[in-house]
Amino acid sequence: MRDLPAPDFSLHASLTSGQTFRWRQHEGWWYGFLGRAAVKIRQEGDRLIWDASDPSVTGEQLRRYFALDLHLPDILSFIDVDMQIHRAIVRYRGLRVLRQDGWETLASFICASFNNIKRIEGMVERLCQAYGEPVALNGFRGFSFPTADALAAVPERRLRSLGLGYRAPYLRATARLVADGRLPADQLRSADYETTKRALLGCDGVGDKVADCVALFGFEKLEAFPVDVWMERVMRYYFRHRKMTRKAVHDYATQRFGRYAGYAQQYLYHDIRTLRATAPPVTATLSTVGR
DNA sequence: CGCCAGGTGCTGA
DNA sequence: TCAGCACATGGC
Q1: Is the CB of A117 under 7 A from strand C?
Q2: Which bases of chain C are under 7 A from a protein CB atom?
Q3: CA–C1' distance A126–C9 (Å)?
Q4: Same domain, residue pair A230 and A263
Q5: Which of A20, A32, A36, A229 has a CA that sits 20 to 30 A from residue A118's CA?
Q6: A:141-160 Cβ neighbours of strand C under 7 Å
Q7: Sheet with A29-34, edge to edge strand ranges
Q8: Residues near A101 by Cβ (< 8 Å), separated by ≥ 6?
Q9: Domain count within chain A
Q10: Is A87 helix (H, G, I), strand (E, B) or coil?
Q11: What's the CA A76/C1' C11 distance, rounded, in angstroms?
């Protein structure tokens, strides 16, 4: 068992805020993957206690995955510009945008479109069980995320049988794009946001929202601001309940929160979803205020 | 049962 | 450029 300093960090908020679909909580530990290696982690104050199935996994890799090298207080002061975002920051301080694998993020968020998180988790887990590699860590048994090569070879009907629905052909086509090298996933990490988003939009099943999620969670583009149904609801605060398109919401938020718009989005998203999950429905409030 | 879910692609104005 | 529509599936 090893440990790692983790100041200004909330493992729980980071893993439950809808940016990753693969981590599982079991007997006080979080189990997940770094590449092919299974990892178990728990937080004790300002430290992470952890172990991995592969001894070559380093603390530096974990530090990088959880973005612990970034100075979070500076990022949060930068986006802390009004009451709405301020409330989310106070509640979930320590939430960090993870640096996930680009291909895994792309494939996962193609599955995520017009879907709910519970079902996304099930779909991704079945993909891993069917086409990933088995890995064991103590009592935990899991499967690594399948490579693009592996998924490129899977017939559409097989993907449908895992419950992917109409996303099956999208995922297959995008896996082929990555496997053939037509989408240079490796280069996107060092490319700028616009270049990365344009490249991602060339994939089947990837529109503005999915491209922004993949740019933010998979390719470190912290200015990306994904707009889904939840963000539309949150952003009514800024638009005083007037009608707006998703593009208008996106452009407004990008102006407002600047180079850390992605962090603002993640705090706002986690805040409203957690609020809706734990409180009784407030549809009356949302639909009547401002009339 | 009907409604909703981290939307996208296609079509026709 | 933009509104309107079809699209699979499962949880609640």
Answers
A1: no
A2: 2-3, 7-12
A3: 14
A4: yes
A5: A36
A6: 160
A7: A2-5, A47-52, A37-44, A29-34, A24-26
A8: A35, A145, A218
A9: 3
A10: helix
A11: 35
Residue A122 sits in which domain range?
Answer: 101-219
A131-187 pLDDT, tens digit per residue, is 999 999 998 999 999 999 999 999 999 999 999 999 999 999 999 999 999 999 989
Question: What Å value separates CA A58 and C1' B11?
Answer: 52
Q: Tell me the two tokens of residue A140.
A: 């935990």
| Protein residues in reach of strand B (CB < 7 A) | A 17-19, 112-120, 166, 170, 203-211, 213, 226-231, 265-266, 269, 273
Return the residue matching tokens 């064991």.
A136
Domain containing A256 — which CATH number? 1.10.1670.10
pLDDT band at A282 (very low <50, low <70, confident <90, very high): very low
In a domain, A32, yes or no: yes
* pLDDT at residue A287 greater than cutoff 80: no
**pTM greater than the 0.85 cutoff:** yes
CATH code of residue A19: 3.30.310.40
φ, ψ for residue A24 (rounded to 5)? Answer: -125, 140
A221 counts as catalytic:
no
Tokens representing A124 are: 């991704």
Distance CA A217, CA A206 (A): 15
